[in-house]
Amino acid sequence: MSDRLHEIEEMLAHLNRACDDLSAVVARQGREIETLQRRVGMLLERAAEAEAEAQGLPPADQRPPHW
After folding, report:
1. What is d(CA 66, CA 29) in angstroms, rounded to the nearest whole number?
2. What is the pTM of this model?
């Protein structure tokens, strides 16, 4: 019985460690997602501003999209 209890305690320790590791990964990914969402928002704003500027110019005076 003592051996079985020791095995269970060992498995529990490994599971706790895996849970802590996964929690750290999820937290890091959450921070990365927030950063990426902010960057995408800024890019969308820039694209909207560029589109608004381009609409006021005649086609010959508009900058090509690759500039």
Report:
1. 32
2. 0.64
From the list 62, 66, 65, the residue with the least C-alpha distance to 54 is 62
Q: Please measure the distance between the N-terminal and C-terminal CA atoms of the chain and give it in whole angstroms.
A: 74
How many residues are there in the chain? 67
The one-letter amino acid at 47: A
Residue 45 and residue 52 in contact, taking contact as beta carbons nearer than 8 Å = no
Question: 7-52 pLDDT, tens per residue?
Answer: 999 999 999 999 999 999 999 999 999 999 999 999 999 998 888 8
Spatial contact of 62 and 54, defined as CB atoms under 8 Å apart: yes
Name, in order, each residue with C-beta under 8 angstroms of 62's C-beta and a sequence gap of 6 or more: 54
User: Which residue shows structure tokens 């900058």?
Assistant: 63
Write out the two tokens for 43: 């890019």
